[in-house]
Amino acid sequence: MSFFLQFMIDVLSLGGAYALMALGLVIVYGILRLVNFAYGELIMVAGYTMYLTSGSGLPWLVMAAVAVLMAVVAGVATDYIAFRPVRAKSVTAVLITSFAFSTLLQNAALLFISPRPRNVPLPEIFSETVQFAGVITPARNLITIAAAVVMLVLFSWLMRRTVLGIAMRAAATNFTMARMLGVPANLIISSAFAISGLLAGVVSMLWIGRIGAVVPGIGLEPLLIAFIATVIGGMRSLQGAVLGGFLLAFMDTTLNFTLPQDLLKFRDAFTFSLVILILLWRPQGLIKGPASGQRT
Amino acid sequence: MLEVAGLQVAYGAIRAVRDVSLTLAEGELVTLLGANGAGKSSTLMCVAGALPAAAGSIRLEGKDVTSARPETMARRGVATVPETRDVFPDLTVDENLQLGAYTRRSDTQGIAEDRARMFEMFPVLAERYGQAAGTLSGGEQQMLVIARAMMSRPRILLLDEPSLGLAPTIVDQIFEMIAKLKSSGLTILLVEQNASKALAVADRAYVMRLGKIEAEGKAAEIAAATDFKALYLAG
């Protein structure tokens, strides 16, 4: 029983983080049909904001809020700098500008801060462990689960109960029709980037909570995870992204528990083999998402 | 109210609309007829702002709105019902209607009234208001799209082939509805292939062929003077 509980906590905390990462990527993809390759850098921006404000003596929660806000700002900036000027022209151009923006941000971090890891302040609770029902687990796992639940509830409320959310879902299926109803394209796209930034900011706090430091390349792994989770779950479906995140975490955790010690370093190879099997079985991902839609 | 002059619409090198001029007076129902590929839908989508004009001008209440964005046209009171019957399939009927009122979203009371009015006009939508729009039948989707367009309280309604692919009884219902909307004073531009039905409700008509206006006049005159068989079959 306690083993099962331990396993569930591991899956849910890892899966919660993965699901938020995937959701941040897919919210933009769903509307623009373009992968934002600068997504990982939003996580980096939040991380470095934490590092830069660490000397300020502000309470941790305030610093975290500032960091998340910076990720939102960086998200909207991605739209204005990398996407909007070339959006109407060509898909290839946007692909390249989003890579360029990603490289630019990473190099700015290398140049102006440091290529070496920088410590990020963490509240004590992140390093404490909790013991209950025969399970010992780091408190940050429970925090991650709680944060994921809060964010997912907030996100689903936004998408289902607000006019903006409904308009974003509509724009994901048929952007032109949504515009013909008076929904401004720029508002929808900027909102998608802002939400993407918000999710990246929260993910950053949770992710850095595991590592305790920030490096310029910190966004790469979350971007990869988000990408795989959305591919498994279905690139176009918000529910699919969440499902894909939890499924990926389930695979990772199961392998962590079952693989013998000397195979553990090949865990990703096993995970990706499973991903390939899933895609052979369901090439569009587990959830297909809205029926049609043209890119704009 | 709406004046289109010398309009051209091109898809790459292909000019779908070569020279279209038409006017629409307040409260008038004008129909644009013609065979498949005559450029009717392109003309309508260009007026809606969904396609850019290659040449010519579109004026709405005296203001130039040539190649305006679709969201701008919607805000100016133009509601569009495209031929593809674009319901948002994974949104509920209710959410679809709610989006129709996007341009006046702060007017919650008015929206609630209009929604009640639409449910009265289309009882089948009331039955299915919580259902995903993609699960509706073709006729129900057509009603939903028209109801959604009406939720914005438009000044001009652009209707693209509302009878396309629907059962004859449903087509009759849709045309009854169009007549009702017209009698409420709404200005309507109706693109249709079903010429006899369209001419029965319209005040005036334009006939398009190969991207150009070939004939125009009072609906009754056009009905008497135009050989539609030749028009449709001779391309």
Condensed summary:
Chain A has 296 residues and is mainly alpha-helical.
What does this structure look like?
The complex is a heterodimer of chains A (296) and B (235). Chain A has helices spanning 2-32, 39-53, 60-83, 91-112, 139-161, 163-173, 175-180, 185-211, 220-233, 238-258, 267-281; strands spanning 118-119, 129-132, 135-138, 213-214. In chain A, 71% of the residues lie in helices and 4% in strands. By secondary structure, chain A is mainly alpha-helical. Chain A has a single domain (21-281), classed as ABC transporter involved in vitamin B12 uptake, BtuC, CATH 1.10.3470. Chain B contains 10 helices and 10 strands. In chain B, helix 3 runs parallel beside helix 6 (138-150) and helix 8 (195-201) packs antiparallel against helix 9. Classes of the chains: A mainly alpha (296), B alpha/beta (235).
Supply the CATH architecture of chain A: Orthogonal Bundle
Could you name the CATH class of chain A?
A: Mainly Alpha
Mean pLDDT of chain B: 91
Separation, N- and C-terminal Cα atoms of chain B: 31 Å
Query: Biggest interface, which chains?
Result: A-B, 19 and 28 residues
Instruction: Give unreliable regions of chain A as ranges.
Output: 292-296
Total of DSSP H or I helical runs spanning 4+ residues of chain B: 10
- The secondary-structure class of chain A comes to mainly alpha
Across the major sheet of chain B, the strand order is 6-7-8-3-9-10
Chain oligomer state: heterodimer
CATH structural fold name of chain A? ABC transporter involved in vitamin B12 uptake, BtuC
Major pleated sheet of chain B: 6 strands, mixed
- Strand-pairing-aware structural class of chain B: alpha/beta
Uncertain spans of chain B:
none
